[in-house]
Amino acid sequence: MYESLTPAPGPVMPERVRRNRASQPVASRVLGGNSEVRSVVVLGATGSVGSQAIDVIAASPSRFRAVVLAAGGANPGLLARQALRTGARAVAVTDPSAVEAFTAAFAALARAAGTPRHPLPVMLPGTEGLSAAAGWPCDVLLNALPGAAGLPATLTALEAGSLVALANKESLVAGGPLIARAARPGQLVPVDSEHSAIMQCLPGWAYGCPTHGIQRLILTCSGGPFRTHTAEQLAAVTPAQALDHPTWRMGPLVTVNSATLVNKGLEIIEAQALFALGYDRITAVIHPHPQSVVHSMAEYADGSTLAQTAPPDMRLPIATALAWPQRPPPSVIAPCDWTGSHTWTFEPVDTDRFPALVLARHAGSLGGSSPAVYNAANEEAVAAFLAGAIPFTAITQTIEHVLTHHVPIPDHDLTLEAVNATDAWARHHAREHLHTATPAPVRHTRKGD
Ligand SMILES: NC(=O)c1ccc[n+]([C@@H]2O[C@H](COP(=O)([O-])OP(=O)(O)OC[C@H]3O[C@@H](n4cnc5c(N)ncnc54)[C@H](OP(=O)(O)O)[C@@H]3O)[C@@H](O)[C@H]2O)c1
Predict the structure, then answer these.
(1) CA 46 / ligand 1 centre spacing (Å)
(2) Is 337 labelled as part of a ligand binding site?
(3) Which of 23, 177, 226, 401 could form a disulfide with 411 if both were Cys (CB 3.0 to 4.6 A apart)?
(4) Which residues line ligand 1 (CB under 6 A)?
(5) Is residue 362 part of a domain?
(6) Which strand (E) or helix (H) includes residue 125?
(7) NCBIfam families from the xrefs (predicted)?
(8) 168, 190, 212: which is the final residue of a domain?
(9) 55 is in an annotated binding site
């Protein structure tokens, strides 16, 4: 039974196809009618964003078709289910040792579905496989990899001429100048709910004059689970508490980033890179859970403020990016119920307790390699926090320390190698700082514990 599974025909994308697509204007493809079925590559298919993208794609076969899925290999069973469900032609698994488990799971699922001869997707193992997936010819590539490691994939997809639906904000944070050089107008579409909201409030975004008349962009923020914590309570937060986000179910890194507000800091840098406004014109405001329906706003110089609202559900911004500049398919999620009473509240961010925003503006204003340092130092500190080695508040202290010791490489000298070297330097420096200067976490215990 197992042997009857044969790889689907078709090689990895020929170079000729890649070059042809890269020379086509993006707009000529993405502005096509709603009747077009868009071919989609999903990087990070088994993650939080990736899995929801698979749901969106599978629910709208008349609009989307998954052609390639990519994941690390930690969850071969889920990846096999997704491959069978979507009929993807190729599957990339970065950990080559997971290919066997994927193949076995795919075979078992195909048998259970009564289709034992279902062709096995073309397997793309290792980092070369991920790169092949990123450059695969498609209409839209969704980059839902976590961390700055997603940058090469973003650059490869841009070079291949795909519309890039970017969930992996760290790409833009670490390599903003590289992406700005590689992307053609309209080629990059944000997936983050805040940036998706802003994009939808900018009628000129799809046509190359995105911020005409704009005074300020306002990113909303749930404030995370510790919005009302005192400084002392913040110092005693545990990893389990930090992983319990009030609004969104996300991967561990982005969940902790939401709790420290580093995520909002990354989003401010992301907004600057996407919408090209100065940092003094991009701000964040807390719109607390359980409201979380105003996803962000664009304030115009004429006095209008446009906001995009919807229940908090990532499937909508994912579908918006996959369909952009068309509207997504109907019924991706149910809209807000406007027949009942609603109260929306907004409050400023307390940057004394949550310094991540100040640090992000500082890193962003320094420019060049500094945002990559902000991101890499944070990732190291989050890993140490999740391992129980440092207190919650040491995460932003580590970012500040590493940023202070960094001599930025300017925008025009930034290359992928320089970003990688900066990333490695910042991680090393963060680890050293964490080993030598960071106190052990404070854990308050109840009497008798
Ligand atoms: N989650 C959200 O609601 C949300 C919202 C907005 C933006 N984002 C952004 O979206 C990105 C993804 O977040 P997430 O929460 O979906 O992350 P996640 O749940 O941790 O998922 C990460 C995905 O990437 C895969 N992956 C990890 N390392 C890989 C590698 N070296 N090669 C290939 N695949 C690899 C994982 O595969 P395995 O399962 O095999 O490890 C998994 O499929 C982040 O940049 C985040 O900031 C997330």
Answers:
(1) 8
(2) no
(3) 177
(4) 44-50, 70-75, 94, 130, 144-146, 149, 167-170, 191-192, 248, 250-251, 254, 314
(5) yes
(6) strand 122-125
(7) Dxr (TIGR00243)
(8) 190
(9) no
Give residue 251's pLDDT: 80
For residues 253 and 115, state if they share a domain: no
The reply to whether 79 and 179 lie within a common domain is yes
Task: Tell me whether residue 229 is annotated as binding.
Answer: no
Same domain for 15 and 137: yes
User: How far is the centre of ligand 1, averaged over its atoms, from the C-alpha of 44 (Å)?
Assistant: 5
Rounded-to-integer distance, Cα 281 and Cα 427, Å: 30
Instruction: Label residues 331-364 b or e (16+ Cβ within 10 Å = b).
Output: ebeeeeeeeeeeeeeeeebeeebbbbbebbbbbb
Picking from 169, 190, 211, the residue at the C-terminal end of a domain is: 190
Backbone angles phi, psi at 334, to 5 degrees: -80, 140
Going by alpha carbons, the residue nearest to atom 27 of ligand 1 is 72
- From start to end of 149-278, where are the E strands? 163-166, 188-190, 214-221
Dihedral sign for Cα 259, 261, 264, 265, please. negative
| Shared domain check, 157 and 48 | yes
> Which range of residues forms the domain containing residue 132?
2-190
pLDDT at 207: 72
Does 216 map to a domain?
no
User: Do 166 and 255 belong together in one domain?
Assistant: no
Closest CA to 317 of 299, 345, 338, 295: 295
For 91, the enclosing helix (H) or strand (E) is strand 90-93
Per-residue pLDDT of the chain (449 residues; tens, 9 = 90+): 222 333 333 333 333 334 444 444 454 444 444 448 999 999 999 999 999 999 999 999 999 999 999 999 999 999 999 999 999 999 999 999 999 999 999 999 999 999 999 999 999 999 999 999 999 999 999 999 998 889 999 999 999 999 999 999 999 999 999 999 999 989 999 999 999 999 999 988 777 777 889 999 999 999 999 999 999 999 999 999 999 876 667 789 989 999 999 999 999 999 999 999 999 999 999 999 888 899 999 999 999 999 999 999 999 999 999 999 999 999 999 999 999 998 999 999 999 999 999 999 999 999 999 999 999 999 999 999 999 999 999 999 999 999 999 999 999 999 999 999 999 999 999 999 998 877 777 654 433 33
**DSSP summary character for residue 54:** H
Ligand 1 pocket, mutate which of 43, 49, 79, 248 (most atoms under 8 A from CB):
49
Provide the domain count of the chain. Answer: 2
Q: Whose CA is nearest to atom 10 of ligand 1?
A: 167
Say yes or no: 95 and 180 in one domain. Answer: yes
CATH number, domain of 431, equals 1.10.1740.10
* Inside any domain, residue 48: yes
